[in-house]
C-alpha cells in the first residue's frame, strides 16, 4: 500500500481523534494509583473514548482483547489488562491507546511512574520521551525516515540505553497501521522522503539494558530479554513544510 497524503478534511478529523485521545491519556494519568488493576484503567479509557462517540481501535485488532495496552516495568508493549494485575508503588507503567473518530485513527503512548520510583526508572522515562522529540527535529518535509531514526537512536545510545529493534512505528489514518513502517534505529535503507500531509505514529521503545525482546505465552506481551526496564512514548504526528504538528498532545503542557 502506498503512503497516503491526507486532505485538509481528513486532517481535521485526525486532529479531533487526537484531541480526544489526549484527553483520555490525561484522565488515565490522573487515575493511575497503586492498588488499581490494569483492567480498571482499561475500563476507564474505553468509557471516555465511547463518551465522545469514538471507538477504541485496539479492541479486537487481530484479536487483541482490550482498549489499552498496559505494560509494566520489564514489559515493553502490548501488555493485556487484567483484573488480577495490580499496579504497585514503584512501578513504571506504559499506557498505549488509540481511538477512531469518524473513520480516522489516533494512537499514542505514555510511560508513567507510580509513586516513588528509582532514579534510574525516572531517567529511563524521561530519556524515552525526549528521544521522540530528538527524532522530531527531522520530522519535516524533505527529510527521510532514517533522519528521524538517527535522531532517536543517537540520543538514546549516547546515554547508554538501547532501542528496541523488533517493533516499529507506522503510518496512520483510515487504518491504525498504514505504510510506511517507521523504525527507531538506523538501517541501510533511508526510507521514504517525508511530505506535508503524511500522518505518522512515531513510537520509540527504549530499554535500560540490551535491546533484544521476547514474547510471553499470551502471544501479545513483549518483555525485555534481560529483564531490564523498558519505556514507550508515542504520538500521532502530522508532517508539514515546517514544524511537525503533534495531534495527540493536548493544550495543557504535559510532563510526560
Ligand atoms: N499502539 C500499538 C501500535 O502502534 C497498537 C497496539 S496493537 C493492538 O502498534 F493490538 F493492541 F492494537
Ligand atoms: Co502505534
TrEMBL record:
Keyword Metal-binding attached: yes
Q: In which residues is a divalent metal cation 1 bound?
A: 96, 107, 234
What Gene3D superfamilies would the database entry show? Creatinase/methionine aminopeptidase superfamily
Enzyme Commission (EC) number? 3.4.11.18
MF GO annotations: initiator methionyl aminopeptidase activity; metal ion binding; metalloaminopeptidase activity
Renumbered to this chain, the signal peptide range is: none
Record GO cellular component, one term? cytosol
- InterPro entries for this protein: Creatinase/aminopeptidase-like, Pept_M24, Pept_M24_MAP, Pept_M24A_MAP1
Which CDD domains does the record associate with it?
MetAP1
Look up the domain of life of the source: Bacteria
Please list the reactions this protein catalyses: Release of N-terminal amino acids, preferentially methionine, from peptides and arylamides
Enzyme class, UniProt record, top EC level = hydrolase
Which of UniProt's keywords are assigned here?
Aminopeptidase, Hydrolase, Metal-binding, Protease
Listed binding positions for substrate are 78, 177
Q: Where is the Peptidase M24 domain?
A: 13-241
Instruction: Tell me the PANTHER family matching this sequence.
Output: METHIONINE AMINOPEPTIDASE
The family database entries (HAMAP family) matched by this protein are listed as: MetAP_1
**Subunit structure, as described in the record:** Monomer.
> NCBIfam families, alphabetically?
met_pdase_I
The protein's name: Methionine aminopeptidase
Species in which this protein is naturally found: Candidatus Scybalomonas excrementavium
